[in-house]
Amino acid sequence: MASFDLSLEELHEYRSGSAEPEGFDAFWSKTLQEAREYDLDARFEPVDTGLETVRVFDVTFAGYGGHPVKAWLTLPAAATEPVPLVVEFVGYGGGRGLPHEHLLWASTGRAHFIMDTRGQGSAWGGGGGTADPVGAGPAFPGFMTRGMDAPENYYYRRVFTDAVRAVEAARSHPSTDAARTVVLGASQGGGISIAVGGLVPDLVAVAPDVPFLCDFPRAVTLTDRHPYREIGLFLKTHRGRTQDALRTLSYFDGVHFASRGSAPALFSVALEDQTCPPSTVFAAFHAWAHDDRTIEVYDFNDHEGGGPYHEAAKMRWLRSYA
């Protein structure tokens, strides 16, 4: 599929029309305050993986509602003092997988913490192991419309809270340098990293790749590819609920978290990406509050984005921050 969105020149000028909801900051402050009423209870169990160059820990910590969330922490085996920390969030449908799937960042001398996404982990990769014990009203299959009747009930309220708590859990390990924490991820993981970048004020860098969950009003009317299409199909059945749905989604729109981003950021975008349309990525990029922001553009790629080329770009970029 050739480019289908705005031209690159227009993308550089595009700004989102997504309206920030009233009480956005209060909503998230209250959400995180409630989550922190539960003991973080971060537990790190050593795992014998057969890998010689890294040490791996099976992690459990308390996320939203005190619910147990799983993760892996991978450390360079030779590290004798705290090392910079990379916290990673995964794409839609995936889970934390298996430890040997995630060796890049520990190979650069950093600690790597990869969070399971509650309720997911059964669509690709090595799977996940974190339940989502919260029920919801009627929803279209998938995760995008679960609890969409109100911001308090929406699925991503739980996920974004888990992600903030993941940073806190990762920082609690004595081998990680909390002062040099980076968050990153691709697709859904990129959207989560933008949210965390807006909710955690003392990160040193944020790197969202082809991020999902941005500029909802445009995304749901521009692409008919899943997962955004889940929202359209829900509203196709539940006629007349569009404005209520968009109000709920506005509390989770990456554009509004980006406007609170307080760390340097490296975005990536693919101009043939129909899953996360380029204009929605540029919307979050242009909203990013920190002056030190860069976007890598992959002209002829779909949702795979820059792939290994962008991994190399991130490694070069992060040398300046962590």
TrEMBL record:
SUPFAM superfamilies on file: alpha/beta-Hydrolases (SSF53474)
Domain of life of the organism encoding this protein: Bacteria
Limits of the Acetyl xylan esterase domain: 1-319
Name of protein: Acetylxylan esterase
InterPro entries: AB_hydrolase_fold (IPR029058), AXE1_dom (IPR008391), CE7 (IPR039069)
Pfam families xref list: AXE1
